[in-house]
Design goal:
Elements (H helix, E strand, L loop, with lengths): L4 H15 L2 H13 L2 H4 L5
Length: 45
């Protein structure tokens, strides 16, 4: 049984966040803040 694509993305994002530097996290958060709320729901952790 294959994992849900959204679940897989969350795991990848979590891994990326774990390895990211603070300046990268701030850029990522700023990018997420610009995403419309409707789209942002896809990336809810």
């Amino acid at each position: 049984m294959t994992p849900e694509p959204s679940r897989q993305i969350r795991d990848e994002v979590r891994q990326m966040l774990a390895q990211a530097r603070p300046d990268q996290l701030q850029r990522l958060l700023a990018a997420i803040a610009r995403v419309p709320v409707k789209e942002a729901q896809h990336y809810d952790a």
